[in-house]
Amino acid sequence: MNTPAYSGIISNYVCTAACRHCMFGSAPDCGKEFISAEMAEETAAVLEKARTRSVHIGGGEPFMNFPALCTLIEALNRHGIGVDYIETNAFWAKDEEIIKERLLKLRYLGVDTVMVSVDPFHIEFVPLERPILLCRMLEKCGFDYFIWKDCYLRPLMKLDTTKTHTREELMQVLGKNYITDTAAEYGVGMNGRALAIAKDLFPAKPAEKWITRDPCSSLLDTCHCHFDLYGNAVPSGCPGISAETEDYLTENVPQDKYPVLSRLYQGGTAALYEYAKSKGFVPAAEGYPSKCAFCYAMRSYLVSSGNRSADLSPVCFYEQIDKIV
Ligand code: SF4
Description:
Layout lengths: L7 E3 L26 H13 L4 E5 L7 H13 L3 E7 L7 H13 L4 E5 L11 H12 L3 E5 L4 H4 L10 H8 L3 H9 L8 H7 L5 H4 L15 E3 L3 E3 L8 E2 H5 L9 H20 L12 H14 L10 H8 L3
Parallel strand pairs: 1-2, 1-6, 2-3, 3-4, 4-5
Antiparallel strand pairs: 6-7, 7-8
Helix pairs in contact: 1-2, 3-4, 11-12
The chain binds iron/sulfur cluster (SF4).
């Protein structure tokens, strides 16, 4: 079984924010589903079998269900898997007492590092005063933390930190191209909700340009992949494609069970195109800005035309991304 490295657990896809760069298309209207105690146990057991030493925890927003987050950490502890850090947008950091209570609980469970999101995308949903307060409390409670990305703190401090800000307000402070500039600076993987940014950044080219037999080999890569609340592994950089965790880690992806993943892995977008075409897919005349945008269009077609397979998951991802591309 392959060993995941720098990998993470997605405790839930639902989030209080719907950021423009979100790889997983998380949003407040994704189903309010959180990792169960059983799934936490099952995933931790498989990861232990795969000799994983530690993982990070993200979402969605893991602090939307603090008891579920704690249950997940307890399961990881039982299997000897450490938590590198927990990611949060700090939406919940409004009250010092509540923050302290939660941090003490996390400390008790063995967690000592938190990643706090601050950037021109999160600020549309979370007032800056909350991540700032959370960082103060993390310091006070002796936690390690890092702000992703702290280079945005100074420019965003020019705005009213007690409220969220619209795209128009942000354009005034950060410049009219701030979305594409931030995406480029951030090194945003142009997938998930960032497919909409890719449309603004890159000229559309005909589908033929993106048809290649080169396999998408990152699909079964165990570096920086994620394991979600449904018991699926999600490859790094390819949201909306998944396989059951154990199948993924043993590279057991038969074509009848995983018709999309197996084709992309073996025959690239050319193999997926042949499959999608056989189900009635017709490429858009205006073309696509990237290979991944073309790949998404084929997968979205399969989901919406009643040809959804187990590897086109989670459903909420396609519902969210279809709204913006
Ligand atoms: S084309 Fe599809 S499978 Fe290949 S890297 Fe992009 S999203 Fe992943």
